[in-house]
Automatic annotation (TrEMBL):
Pfam entry (one): Lactamase_B
Protein name (record): MBL fold metallo-hydrolase
Domain Metallo-beta-lactamase: 36-209
Taxonomy of the source species: Bacteria, Pseudomonadati, Pseudomonadota, Alphaproteobacteria, Sphingomonadales
Entry-linked Gene3D superfamilies: Ribonuclease Z/Hydroxyacylglutathione hydrolase-like (3.60.15.10), Winged helix-like DNA-binding domain superfamily/Winged helix DNA-binding domain (1.10.10.10)
SUPFAM superfamilies named among the record's database cross-references: Metallo-hydrolase/oxidoreductase
Family matches, as CDD domains: metallo-hydrolase-like_MBL-fold
SMART domains in UniProt: Lactamase_B
């Protein structure tokens, strides 16, 4: 997770990035949101959808409305309910009358270190989409693709007409997603990555943070490989006598900003929980040991 260059970023500006797709960047950069949350306006006709309205920031809400122009917002779609994604839904609904349609409500106390990953307690969807359900307007159709892992309620949205997939925080070009228990689940995350890899119809990813992904299946294959490499690294750490997350992280994340180590520890925990489910490790209090099997 490298710090972005924020000079001349197009905050509060409408960017046309593809047929049927415009983008507005929120002014909420951080080590975990990169340059900020990217809100997408889908549709070129008189009906549009807004994906991930972002923070409830007046500058950003005004910029979304400017991007919408004279069109009618018929859906406000959220990929998940972390507070850098969904709080803008309520004020946008109040201004447009549009329904909030997308992921289910989820409010948990996140015991991890990511302040920006706190859940939005005020998110109130008018309609929850399940996997494969669609919303449509003039000239466009969005299909929900269930991708739990980063959060249990995470959805991606496929723009059927163009092959674009709005990936929220599930897949990002600039960084791997943080998977932080108790709600973040590495087993589900890896399964969701495998599912996206199988979707050959997706030709480009538009994530909530960072640049568009032009070779999506190649990136997803690399992300799966990265996660498998991490789990092998964890098993080697245990074999070397490092049995706690506090011992593992400084060795596994050398060269990474130490301020990010607590978040890295959450991903290590997520991997350990996945390995535990698979019968490869066991724990006693905060200590993890490998399970040796004899075939």
């Amino acid at each position: 997770m490298n710090a972005p260059d924020l000079a001349d970023k197009p905050y509060a500006v409408t960017e046309r990035i593809a047929p049927l797709v415009r983008r507005v960047l929120a002014r909420n950069p951080s080590p975990f949101t990169y340059t900020g949350t990217q809100t997408y306006v889908v549709g070129d006709g008189h009906e549009v959808a807004v994906i991930d309205p972002g923070p409830a920031d007046e500058e950003h809400i005004a910029a979304i409305l400017a991007a919408v122009g004279e069109a009618r917002v018929i859906a406000i779609a959220c990929t998940h309910t972390h507070r850098d994604h969904s709080p803008g839904a309520a004020p946008l609904k109040a201004r447009t009358g549009a329904a909030i349609i997308g992921c289910a409500a989820l409010t948990l106390r996140d015991d991890g270190p990511r302040a920006d990953a706190a859940f939005d307690p005020d998110y109130a969807p008018d309609r929850v989409l399940t996997d494969g359900e669609t919303i449509s307007g003039h000239g466009w159709t969005l299909e929900a693709v269930a991708t739990p892992g980063h959060t249990s309620n995470h959805l991606c949205f496929a723009l059927v007409e163009t092959g674009a997939l709005f990936t929220g925080d599930h897949v990002m070009g600039w960084s791997t997603s943080v998977v932080s228990p108790p709600d973040g689940d590495m087993t589900a995350y890896l399964a969701s990555l495998a599912r996206l890899y199988e979707r050959e119809q997706d030709t480009v990813y538009y994530p909530a943070h960072g640049p568009a992904v032009e070779k999506p299946r190649q990136l997803v294959r690399g992300m799966i490989g990265h996660r498998r490499q991490r789990e092998r690294q964890i098993l080697r750490q245990i074999e070397a006598g490092h049995h706690t997350i506090g011992e593992m992280v400084p060795l596994m994340y050398k060269g990474v900003d130490e301020r990010l180590w607590p978040a890295a520890g959450r991903s290590v925990l997520a991997h350990l929980l996945d390995l535990e489910r698979r019968g490869l490790v066991k724990r006693e209090n905060d200590s993890w040991t490998a399970i040796v099997t004899h075939g």
